[in-house]
Amino acid sequence: MREGRTIRSAHLVADLNQEAANLWAEPGWQAEGHVAKTLIREGALSVVLIALRANAALPPHHAPGPITVAVLSGEVDFWAAPETVRLGAGQLLALETNAEHGVTARTDSAILVTIVLAPDGQAGATLPVG
After folding, report:
1. How many domains does the chain contain in total?
2. Are 50 and 33 within 8 A, CB to CB?
3. Which residue of 70, 82, 84, 117 is 20 to 30 Å from 7, comparing CA positions?
4. Cβ of 51: how many Cβ atoms within 10 Å?
């Protein structure tokens, strides 16, 4: 995964469609079924774009802070114990800190993952509900 950019001015703009197209063109996407790029890494915030080929999977893992997963294109099955949720383009899922999860692409897909850490790099607070 390539390192992200820091925010050096009042804002940073990323063309998510172009970034996804760039990832789909990379050899790793064809060879391994997925490729990722960290778009932003700034303090407690990381934003990662992941391109997945149909039927490719990210095995179960944990995130060190609460995350959101936004499906930009395609359709994925997102597993978080004890259930699997099918997500399509335009849908967003939020997951608490350290929850084991995994993703399988049903079609060629692009997902945007946002991870929030405490300022010291440790796991952040859990997501508020309601």
Report:
1. 1
2. no
3. 70
4. 28
The answer to the question of residue 112 being in a domain is yes
* Coil, helix or strand at residue 30: helix
CB 69 within 8 A of CB 93: yes
Distance CA 46, CA 54 (A): 25
For residues 51 and 108, what is the distance between their CA atoms, to the nearest angstrom? Answer: 8
Using only C-alpha atoms, the chain has a radius of gyration, in whole angstroms, of 14
Position 80 in a domain: yes
Q: What is the pLDDT of residues 89-126, one digit of tens each?
A: 999 999 998 889 999 999 999 999 999 986 555 544 44
Phi, psi of 21 (to 5 degrees): -60, -40
* Three-state secondary structure readout of 89-110: CCCEEEECCCCCEEEEECCCEE
The reply to whether 50 falls in a domain is yes
**Beta bridge pairs of residue 69:** 93, 113
